[in-house]
Amino acid sequence: MSRLTSFEKPPKLRPGAAAPHQYRLLGKKVLITDEHGRWALLTPAEHARLLAGLKPSDPLWPELQARGFVAGAFDFDAAARRQFERSLLSWKGPASHVLLLDGMGLETARAVVEFVFRCPGPQLTLELVFRDASAVWAVLWFVVQYARRKGEWTRRPVFLIARARTMSPDQADFLRSHGVTRALTLELAGAPVMKTSPPFRAQRARAVLAPGAVEPRAWAEWFEKWGFESVRLEPAALDEKGVADFASFHDGFLDWLLEHGEEANLRDEWASALLAGRRWSLPGMDILEQLAYDATGRVFASELSAASSESCLGGVGELRYQDLPRREAANAAIAASHADNQPQCSQCAYRPFCAVAPSLNQRLQSNLWGQTPASSACVLQMGILDRFFSRFVDEKWFLLLNKWHVDMT
Amino acid sequence: MKIVKGAVAVKFGKPLYGAEALAAGALALGKRAQVFVGETKSVFSVEIVPASRLTPAALLALGGEFLNEALNHEYRQRVIQANAPLTRAVLAPLFAKGFPAVPADPLEELEPQVKADRVRDVEELLAQARGMK
User: Fold this and answer.
1) What global pTM score does this model have?
2) Is the distance from CB of A254 to CB of A217 less than 8 angstroms?
3) φ/ψ (deg, to 5) at A312
């Protein structure tokens, strides 16, 4: 079983005609992508012309040459620059740090913030995750204040996000006045009741689709009505039914956004996460983009792996940031992140956009490398990307992505 | 693949499969099964004994999972070998020197008072936070 697509009758290939690329059949189109996410949506006839060797007089030539798909006119300097900028050769350190605050003490919080600021990188994001702000208020208050001060002292921009299920208006006001983005975690069950307000005013939402969640368009309207700026939909479970329910819900959600894109402020976080956010052309967030810290100050490769002691990299008290590459768990996660090390992934058209992290494989298949043919996470994300790329025939989709600061031109 | 007395028996031909592939398969099954390996010059004989009694369908699924992982492992090694020059160029420098910690703040180093003021500032924050409990 493969998640990849193949031609019934493969087109003829003239060696040296087309630059290296991956392809995927999307309905009646052929999507081609390069290693760093440059792409083109072609008809099978156009793709066949590319493989056979485009002539400069061909109407396709300017576009495909500019995107680096014509081997004879390949810009090696630009490719080298791109390889440096978009690969780990220019990696500066994990930028995102997830602090799981429920049950964390003040001294641990202090040590965690100090560890975070020992990580290099031009900017840092601290995502503070908890259920109820009242239960962690002292720690939350301290982390916000201390991280702000550390940002000033180290002259680094610090972005703070508070992700919760509930907080009081006063707590939300405090966070807003300290420049903290509020994110609401909620379950979508059934259809929304338009006049029912969310537990607190938030800019972002992480919405888990409970079994039986219906009316994605109405939910989109609900999020828009209550002032959310972005939503990340999540399946209730990564099994066959959960993925299928997610696919149809997400499709309806995107349709609403496409129809109301001009006047609405809402955006789909998957679009920015997969299309614009893949800084390193590597799947997932483990270590390279994210570190997570649990209530006892243990450091993990990502939020997803925070429950697994196998993925523990050490405690903030004794672990030094510079020792991370000497940890076996770190080595394994980084090696498993590299698509060139993976069967199928190395040929996948979506590898520049992939966010199936090794820690997700570990959780689903008890294996950092994952078995991509059977991975439901792979099905979910390839489905999302299929929905995104198949919409590129519509000019409105480009305009909407531009509005969301996702440049796919 | 055969079911023999509540276990799964599989033969793996050499040299297509190596011992590492069988180890990867065993790792994928974890505590759900014990894996016994016998060897001749041309074949590995593997017996997968589940930790608990399983139906024939569940036994076949267990054996299939082992086979999947063993095949995946073998194929992955070939992909890794084929792409080694590229991945080595990117990953080796990262492991060798890719995690430099932020150096100490020169202002704190040059002005001990700055460091002392900051430490006091943090202690005051902590005291204030403790008062909230």
Assistant:
1) 0.89
2) no
3) -70, 130
Q: Which residue has the higher pLDDT, A343 or B133?
A: A343
Give CA separation, B12 vs B37, B43, B74, in Å: 10, 6, 12
Beta bridge partners of A299: A293, A314
Report the C-alpha gap between A407 and B10 in whole angstroms: 51
**How would DSSP label each residue in A352-387?**
GG----HHHHHHHHS-SS--GGG-HHHHHHHHHHHH
Which pair of structure tokens corresponds to residue A223? 């999020």
pLDDT at B88: 85
**Encoded amino acid at A224, one letter:** E
Q: What is the pLDDT of residue A334?
A: 85
Judged by phi (left if over 0) then psi (alpha if -120 to 50, else beta), residue A155 lies in left
Q: Which structure tokens are listed for A172? A: 């939300």
CA distance B59 to chain A (A): 18
B79, B95, B129: residue with CB nearest A138: B129
Radius of gyration of chain B (CA): 28
Give the list of residues 6+ apart from residue B83 with CB closer than 8 angstroms, or none. A340, A341, A346
Q: What tens digit of pLDDT does each residue of B2-38 get?
A: 999 999 999 999 989 999 999 999 988 989 999 999 9
Beta carbons within 8 Å of B68's beta carbon, 6+ residues apart: A371, A373, A374, B28
Strands A96-100 and A290-293, bridge-based pairing = parallel
Distance (Å, whole) CA A124 – CA A265? 26
Task: Please indicate if any CB of chain A lies within 8 Å of the CB of B57.
Answer: no
Neighbouring-strand partners of residue A41: A31
Write out residues in chain A with pLDDT < 70, as ranges. Answer: 1-2, 277-284
Determine the distance from the C-alpha atom of residue A10 to the mean position of all C-alpha atoms in its chain, rounded to a whole number.
Answer: 33
pLDDT at position A1: 56
Q: Among candidates A187, A242, A248, A196, which has minimal Cα distance to A217? A: A248
Instruction: List, in sequence order, every residue forming a beta bridge with B85; answer none if it has no partner.
Output: none
DSSP H/E element including B119: helix B112-132
Dihedral through CA A317, CA A321, CA A324, CA A330, nearest 10? 90
Q: Does A320 touch chain B (CB under 8 A)?
A: yes
The complex's ipTM works out to 0.83
CA distance A107 to A127: 18
Query: Residue A340: its pLDDT value, please?
Result: 81
Interchain CB distance below 8 Å, B122 and A138: no
Tens-place pLDDT, residues A13-65: 999 999 999 999 999 999 999 888 889 999 999 999 999 999 999 999 999 99
Which among B28, B79, B102 has the least Cβ separation from residue A346? Answer: B79
Q: What is the pLDDT of residue A339?
A: 80
Q: Which of B90, B108, B114 to mutate to test the interface with A (most CBs of A within 10 A)?
A: B90
First to last CA, chain A: 33
Nearest chain A residue (CA) to B24:
A367
Conformational region of residue A3, where left means phi above 0, alpha means psi within -120 to 50, and beta covers everything else: alpha
